[in-house]
Amino acid sequence: MALEEIALAFWFLLPAYAANPMAVVFGGGTPIDFGRSLRDGHRVLGDGKTWRGLAGGVASGLLLGILLTLLGSFLSPRLAFGDWPGVLRVLVILPVGALLGDLAGAFVKRRLGKVRGERAPGLDQYDFLLGTLLFLLLLERDWWFLRYWTGDAIFGLAFIILITPALHRVVNVIGYRWGHKREPW
User: Fold this and answer.
1) Cα torsion for 170, 174, 175, 179, to the nearest 10°?
2) Cys-Cys link to 27, which of 2, 53, 130, 163 (CB 3.0-4.6 A)?
3) pTM confidence score
4) Burial class of residue 17, CB neighbours in 10 A (0-12, 13-18, 19+)
């Protein structure tokens, strides 16, 4: 059933979705690029991408993934991310892929001459999702195909692609109102 597949797609990508805003919450400190600029005169990534944010985002996504896996294993085998201990690989790939996708997005924005916080429609909303999906495809192809390319699962992936900009906006507005972001987009 398509509705079940939509719910499952969202469930399985929650650790990736959580990693991005939690990187903002835990952020600050030393920038990942150590303040370096490239020959184009623009920073490699910028001050908004920090080691503390990266670690906090990955840890948060991993912790959420572990909790969801335990809960899913208890409620229904279909909600489990996989078998222990192999599932840990997937649970690390989800937030790491999301945050590396976000870093790639920041790199592209700097190459386009955009400063921290400047809008980049499409890129801002999808960089983390593309990173997640690419990492899954490259590093956990079997898990990826079992989850998304069987039966009605394509509806779940389509839903994720459609809902991501709205979720991104809501989370950013919350982060802005709580004082963790400089701008609400």
Assistant:
1) 150
2) 53
3) 0.89
4) buried
